[in-house]
Amino acid sequence: MTSIGSLVFCTDCGNLLPASKGNEKNILKCECCGAENQDSKFKSIVTKSKPSDFPSLLRQKLSTVQTVERHKVQTEALIAETCEKCGRTEVRFSSVQLRSADEGATNFYTCDCGHKWSANN
Q1: What is the pLDDT of residues 9-22, one digit of tens each?
Q2: 51 phi and psi, to 5 degrees?
Q3: Per the annotation, does 13 bind a ligand?
Q4: Disulfide: which of 17, 56, 59, 119 matches 28 by Cβ 3.0-4.6 Å?
Q5: Which SS3 state, helix, strand or coil, does residue 57 take?
Q6: What is the pLDDT of residues 33-50, one digit of tens each?
């Protein structure tokens, strides 16, 4: 009888045997060929593996280091909002979560004229 992890196989035909009782006096009878196999499940078998044993494209993508230069990240967008100071109809804005998550974000607006203001959503 051969065992792999918690599975026990018949030594004669290789068929999967009924569930082990964990007792070496227990006899497991093969339903396929009728051979009687002594239970060896009572022996503890530990198997270990490393992530590299099972390569995958997802794991390869996750292990790739990505570098982001902070000054190249665009954090503002254009929106159709009127500047109170100069009347320009398109200004830049960014949203920041300043309060708790169940409250709205705060929008910060910046006009090309230099005027800045904020609004809570």
Answers
A1: 888 888 888 776 65
A2: -55, -30
A3: yes
A4: 17
A5: helix
A6: 988 887 765 555 667 777
